[in-house]
Amino acid sequence: MLNIKNLNFRYSRKGKQTISDFNLTLTEGGIYGLLGENGAGKSTLLHIIMGLLTPESGKVTFNGENTRKRLPSVLADMYIVPEENELPQIHLLTFARKYGALYPKFSMEDMYRHLSTFGITGNPRLDKLSMGQKKKITLSFAMACNTSLLIMDEPTNGLDIPSKSAFRKFIVESINDDRIFLISTHQVRDVSNILDHIIIMDSSRVLLNENISEIQSKMKFTNTSNKSEIENAYFSLPSLGGATVIMPNLDNIDTEVNLETLFTFAVEQPEKLNSIFKK
Q: Looking at 29-33, 177-181, 205-209, 252-256, which range is the least confident one?
């Protein structure tokens, strides 16, 4: 379990707080989508979770241990894929042997299985690859570490359309009841159909933290030109020929969650959205 309790953080003593009194709990077996506006503190939060930044107050614990202590046993069971990273001037197999040794559950067989999903074979030299190829190798290595917590920051940036499809495939195939996947992204269309939990945040609070199934049970997502439906919707955005709306799900029929509309609803009317999910 990952637990974030009363977290506060700022980059300088006199600077504006980037994260303020933030609380969140993630449990095993979930693929969590972390959404937020630019500057909401998503990447900062991810680095605090990994113990790379020190909070002003509050703490993050993973399986009961404070991640800022960066205990070897904790670091060996968590991994972050940053939005951008540079790979060393070595070949893939050398990289895997050297860095895979840091993760007790690393599997070379799993890595090559994931690489094959992306169409990568052989033993390429890492620094000679394109941005997209580097991202595929980074994701494949990260998944093969088989850590209980895997964090991915904008994982589909640099991937072409077939590779984005392959990414969704290996995420779904790799999740199990012992792992937590946390995906921070602006590219909601790339991941919308694999997430089972949505977190929408700003710097001071969680605007939404719900299972997809719970969202679908409460809300109906559709496009309509019916003025009465638009007027009575929880939320609407103008679209070609009418509006994209979020309505009460009165007929108990699940619809595909429109993450872009839901995100806008959360940012513009957080209190109204929160009232829908009050237990």
A: 205-209
- Report whether 96 contacts 141 (CB < 8 A): yes
Residues 50 and 151: beta-carbon distance below 8 Å: yes
Collapsed DSSP state (helix, strand, coil) of residue 127: helix
Cβ neighbours around 49 below 10 Å, total: 23
pTM: 0.93
Q: How many CB atoms are closer than 10 A to CB 217?
A: 12
3-state secondary structure of 195: coil
Which residues, at least 6 apart from 184, have a Cβ–Cβ distance to it below 8 Å? Answer: 34, 35, 42, 43, 46, 151, 152, 153, 154
Which ranges in 50-130 belong to alpha helices (H)?
Answer: 72-75, 92-100, 108-117
- What's the token pair of residue 71? 């205990």
